[in-house]
Amino acid sequence: MAELYCLGIDIGTSGTKAALFTQNGKAVLSKTEEYPLYQPRNGWAEQDPLDWWHAVQKSVSGLISESGVAPADIKSIGLSGQMHGLVMLDADGNLLRRAIIWCDQRTARECEAMNALIGKQRLIEITANPALTGFTASKILWVRENEPDIYERCAHILLPKDYIRYMLTGEFATDVSDASGMQLMDVPKRTWSLEILNKLGISGDLLPKIYESPDQAGVVCAKSAGETGLRAGTVVAGGAGDNAAAAIGMGVAKPGSAFMTIGSSGVIYAVTDKVSIDLAGRVNTLCASVPGGWTVMSCTQAAGLSLKWFRDNFCLKEILEAEKLGMDVYDFMGGLAEKVGIGAQGLLFLPYLMGERAPHPDSLCRGVFFGLSAIHGSAHMTRAIMEGVAYSQWECLDVFAEMGVTAGDMMICGGGGRSRLWRQILADTLGCTISSARHDEGPALGAAILGAVAAGLYDSVGEACEQIVVREKLNEPIEANRVKYKGYFDLFKRLYVNLRSDFEILAVLQ
Q1: 365 and 355 Cβ atoms separated by less than 8 Å
Q2: What residues are annotated to the active site?
Q3: Cα Rg, the chain, nearest whole Å
Q4: Cα dist. 384→336, 415, 422 in Å?
Q5: Can you give the pTM of this predicted structure?
Q6: How many CB atoms are located within 10 Å of the residue 161 CB?
Q7: What is the mean pLDDT of the chain?
Q8: CATH topology of domain 5-250
Q9: How confident is the model over 95-127, as pLDDT tens digits?
Q10: Which of 314, 316, 323 shows the shortest CA–CA distance to 349?
């Protein structure tokens, strides 16, 4: 009997990853194709959805040809992707503009309008979140106000991964985990909110059908089969937003389990079996990719992005030295930062390069190095960035605790999770064991698992996770280090409070 395979496709911010797995989760081959990010103005962020589709075509066709796996043996496709992005199509399914993606911060005025139209508390009660510039609803309002000709021609609104589903299957569909990040959904009821849509004046006809993540939500059509090498009729699952899929890929499917990702953004994601909402709006509550489950999630907008920004703009010397040694530049920078020690000799970093989302939903705040002096060099700044991101995660975990949401043995993924130093900083500051999946394939594996369930290869998401995901402990917290970090953490929290009004003044001056 031929081996069966599952395909996971993750539409990321920097690139699309397509990964092929056996039915039992063994990685066969993966391909990643990159594409650009457009920033027409400060705080704006856009991508071309056709870049995503071309990346899918190239990566999937490459996987099939290089792996030698017969398309007929690929039983399912799971989709994952960056959340909150706005994709607008006309009645013929053609793109109307570039997608406005998750880290775009142009919609502060629209968020104010949402609060006025719906009421701050009522909005949180229904959507489980405050009005956020990163979420999709405010982006829709921005287009309606600033590009009315495009809005009038819009017939379909999709999220990034769901545009890929449309291109693969011809279906307009989404899943509960991704849809709950649009701010148009009644999150406790897991359906579109007629109250929100009516008060915002957005037609429900623009929105796709909602599925649970492991449900079948289409099959590959003949046209896309010819463009990708896939077999027409292959099952496509509902899929999940990137963090919800990453959770499944690390076996985080039961209440009390949690994971953290240090990618472009930094996320803590915990699963609950009941709706738990922070009425102050400091963290987000969303539907989980496990039917009947919810999640509490935080997002530091610029986690790994902060370190990449620093590397790209200020670390030419380190890049060249790492090349000479045949080392990864991040490993080289981490080695230098480790020698600096806790607190980076009195240097703190506020990681607000793209505004912030949690626990401070503030589009106007900006990145800060505090305490900078002539004794500091790039190693100190690298360590300060790592610690600043950890402090931001610590703040968020404290909010989780207030909500009664626990996170003990913390799973980790993302590029930052490969840094031994960064993992230890996180273990020490958060006071928990840091573990990882033995084979960290992130959202692509989670998407593939959801596809496997949709195709009937497993009876449930929980069963699939238990059979596929193997955990390994990496870093244990050192209590003495946590005590040393505490003073810096307290100062870190005060800095945002003290600078908040100054960020507002700076925004006016620009």
Answers
A1: yes
A2: 242
A3: 22
A4: 12, 18, 11
A5: 0.84
A6: 32
A7: 95
A8: Nucleotidyltransferase; domain 5 (3.30.420)
A9: 999 999 998 999 999 999 999 999 999 999 999
A10: 314
